[in-house]
Amino acid sequence: MRVLRPLVLSLLLVLGGGITALSAQNREVSGKVLDANQQPLVGVAVLVDGTTKGVTTSENGTFKIQVPSGEAVLQVTCLGYLPQKVTVPSSRNSITIYLQEDAIMLDATVVIGYGTQKKVNLTGAVATVGSKELENRVTHSLGSMLQGSVAGLNITTSSGKPGSTPAINIRGVNSINSADPLVLIDGVVGDLNRVNPNDVESISVIKDASAAAVYGARAAFGVILVTTKNGSAQDGKATVRYSGRFGWEEATTSTDYENRGYWSVYTVNKFWQADSGTNYVKYNDHDMQQLLARVNDRTEHPDRPWVVEEIRNGRKQWVYYGNYDWWDMLFQQRRPVQQHNISLSGGTKDIKYLVSGAYDRQEGIQRAHPDVYNKYNLRAKLDFRINRWATLSNNTSFFSSNYKSLGDGSVDNTIAYSARHALANFPMKNPDGSWLYSTPYLDYKIANGRHILLNEGTHRNVDRSNDFSNTTRLVITPFKTLSITGDFTYRLYQNRNTSRSSAMNYREYPDGPLLAYDTGAGMNQLDEVVQTRNYYSANVYANYDMRTRHVCGVLDVVLHWEDGSDEFYIYKLDEEERMVVLSKMEDYCVQRTGQTLGALCKMYLEPPDHPAMEIRMR
User: CA 277, CA 280: separation in Å to the nearest integer?
Assistant: First the structure.
């Protein structure tokens, strides 16, 4: 040892990189992995750097691993701890490694019910989702984006209707009543699916009963805290961001239903006969033979018409022998969608602003007159620093949506009823252009008349929702550890549903009059339901933060013993301690060697063969 005897100062500037084995001979290295409190760590992965050869530590933290002869490098990793690469000289076969907790992960800020807190200090079940985890998920609502991102958060989608939102519960349903979690958006009660996903900075999900300590019984089913983005200080410069998407959506379930008249009638009659002893469709053997003759006709053949006019029971009647695909006649497979997002942000150190807007358009499955859902989002945030101890902020958001469709008050009922009594042999219209609703061969009404209202366009439904919210907040910080917050929120949200229905005309016999379906779904009426709610909220609270030691540096000390074993010690340093250590090391180097710390590092890039100690500053 040429310098600093018996203490050898070996500052390792290059700690990474793989080491290639120069010999085919292996040797066994054993050791122990402990934490900073001298406690063994179980399940730590120990690998030979640059290879896939590795082992895990046992219950007492020990391990044994085969490494190439000569100097070897071990890569040590464990969840919640900083990974390390440890050099094992050829003369040593036993080492003790001390792992340091991942200060970055543990110091991450988590939004909780009463402010923010570091993960290392959390005692409740809180999960966080950042904006980076959401930005690449393509969906129409924030609730759907959370699917699969938080353990214990159940997202259930029960409808594919444009604008529909999933049901959310935390850790299952444990009540016969509503089990929906409490949703707070920037501290205000709101609807998760009315938030523009591009506005989200982070989401915290409080899953245990500790949420009730802050929010009371309303939070018994958990709390979801949404924090939206703020403006940033950019020396007065503005940043504009835009993103857009165009595409198509398709059903995930098969819609390849029976579209051959013969098999449609035969199958239903078979089951109906077994249940009630009669035929569902009152066709005779001749009619079934006519259906069978056309079973492979994709389109109507001139020699085999799909609607035949005959005289039966002394009256002209239409007999239906077609192969119609009712699903394709009423609904479309692909629906176009588009999304647009734009934001403007910027400011200075005293004033920060953010303005964002979003538009989402979805088209539904109705073919003749497509149902369309439009959604609009606007948000404006302003943060104004009054002086060094007071900050004023304002957060305004607006949500608006409208869904236009055809049906008898509900598009879900329309789809369900349109599938009833609509066998593949029946068309939607008769040869004279009149609607088919009633026939003497069926005791029920064809498709319950839903095909008429879907094509005539007279049964119009419009569902509108508006949600306006404004929060003004004043934060006073007389001391660094104390902040007093007061805010006032006003929220107005309104739902307006309008439904218009009218009579539907149809013909049953070729020589019969035009009849009207004017009851039930065919009743001539106008319904309108309006729900308006006003929400007022005022809060005043204080936060006191106990200042904790901030780890910004790590000092590694490695002791090499004569028996070939090594011991690793890791010391966490705050900023002040780190500067003191660096200063002392600099002074020591100059006094003992006449050279600076940087000069010694250049002279001794490679550690000595048998150093008594290594000191590493990270």
Answer: 10
Q: Would you say the C-alpha torsion 271, 274, 276, 279 has a positive or negative sign? A: positive
Distance of alpha carbon 142 from the chain centroid = 6
CA atoms of 236 and 32, how far apart (whole Å): 55
Q: What is the pLDDT of residues 260-281, one digit of tens each?
A: 999 999 999 999 999 999 999 9
User: Rounded CA gap, 436 and 261, in Å?
Assistant: 16
Dist CA 74 CA 52 (whole Å) = 11
- Residue among 199, 179, 221, 211 nearest 111 (CA): 211
∠ Cα 34 40 44 (to 5°): 75
Q: From 56, 36, 29, 59, select the one nearest 44 (Cα to Cα).
A: 56
Q: What is the dihedral of CA 281, 287, 292, 298, to 10 degrees?
A: -80
Half-sphere exposure (CA, 13 Å, Cβ side) for 422?
Answer: 26
Nearest CA to 371 among 328, 407, 422, 318? 407
pLDDT band at 607 (very low <50, low <70, confident <90, very high): very low
Q: Furthest-apart CA pair in the chain: how many Å?
A: 125
β pairing state of 94-98 and 26-34:
parallel
Burial label, 54 (beta-carbon count in 10 A; 0-12, 13-18, 19+): middle
Cis peptide before 162 (omega within 30 of 0): no
Among 65-74, 255-264, 440-449, the range scoring the smallest mean pLDDT is: 65-74
User: Model confidence over 127-168: pLDDT tens digits?
Assistant: 788 888 887 788 888 888 888 888 778 888 888 888 888 888
pLDDT, the chain, mean: 82
Helix axes 285-293, 261-276, angle to 10 degrees: 150
Q: How far apart are CA 325 and CA 456, in angstroms?
A: 19
Q: What's the token pair of residue 321?
A: 């022998």
- On whether the CB atoms of residues 241 and 346 are closer than 8 A, the answer is no
Cα separation, 194 vs 470, whole angstroms: 15
Q: Is the dihedral of CA 13, 15, 16, 22 positive or negative?
A: positive
Length reported for the chain:
618
Please, which residues have CB within 8 angstroms of residue 35's CB and are 6 or more apart in sequence?
Answer: 41, 81, 98, 99, 101
459 by Cβ neighbours in 10 Å (0-12 / 13-18 / 19+) ranks as buried
CA distances from 169 to 218, 311, 373 (A): 13, 62, 26
CB distance 8 to 559 below 8 Å: no
| Angstrom distance (rounded) from CA 470 to CA 396 | 4
β strands within 25-181, DSSP E: 26-34, 45-48, 54-56, 62-68, 72-77, 84-88, 94-98, 109-112, 115-118, 126-130, 153-156, 167-170
The whole-angstrom separation of Cα 252 and Cα 455 is 25
